[in-house]
Amino acid sequence: MRTRPASAPAPASAPAPASAASPVDAEPVRGRLAGVATMIGSGLSTQTGAAIGSLAFPVLGPVGVVAVRQYVAALVLLAVGRPRLRTFTWGQWWPVALLALVFGTMNLSLYSAIDRVGLGLAVTLEFLGPLAIALATSRRRVDVCCAVIAAAGVVTLMRPQPSTDYLGMALGLLAAACWASYILLNRTVGRRVPGAQGAAAASCLSALMFLPIGVVVALRHPPTAGAVACAVAAGVLASAVPYLADLFTLRHVPARAFGLFMSVNPVLAALVGLIGLGQELGAPEWAGIGAIVAANALSILTSRR
Predict the structure, then answer these.
(1) Buried b / exposed e across 128-140, counting CB within 10 Å, b at 16+?
(2) CA–CA separation, 111 and 115 (whole Å)
(3) Are the C-beta atoms of residues 120 and 281 closer than 8 Å to each other?
């Protein structure tokens, strides 16, 4: 009778935790990997859409392109999210309204910066927003080190030049502040509003804000078919797709990890600018990109399981 308890618990207790914990442990890991893959796809889609949208600047200007982006995003997200606006409570409406305001301001300031300082520098300046989130919310020393390395890369990329456009840089910094707010508000909306209803409602409000602006731009600068096509493509690639992707990502990835990992956007912007727009980079720029990539790799390798 005593030998059975002595021998039975050993084989019974060893496999049980492994078989019982494996599915539970695998699920968060899969969610984290899916979140990382979604972030990469979202960033690539965003920068490609921004590059395509910049081709319409000579006809529509940054304001016109952003207006069309907002319309397209609203149509796509309304079809996907199908928000039940009448059922929204005040606790759901106020973050949605703020997200709509931040969303429109972020796009307008970023595209205005792209028009003045180029895709790579504008996106790099915008990255300072997520970087600030990473620094403010980090509790690990390694995350702080990664953020500092990434910041060094950003400083290298945005170093002053004789032809520095300070207004364009200020617009990029405004986009950075909006992106930081976007991260936090999008996370709040994702928690309070089921599915994609919050994203759809915010995009609809933002589109309504830009409706009179779009009318004025169309009257002053009659659009061409090519310009409208580029703006529509920018709306799909740089608004609708990333919006839904970020909503999914922020439910599986902590805010500080999201902010730090999104530093890959300057890398993607530089590559898209080089391939799509012919914007060549020098050795200092590639050194800055390398620092950002190293920060991302270090953060991923040292992240907790």
Answers:
(1) bbbbbbbbebbee
(2) 6
(3) yes
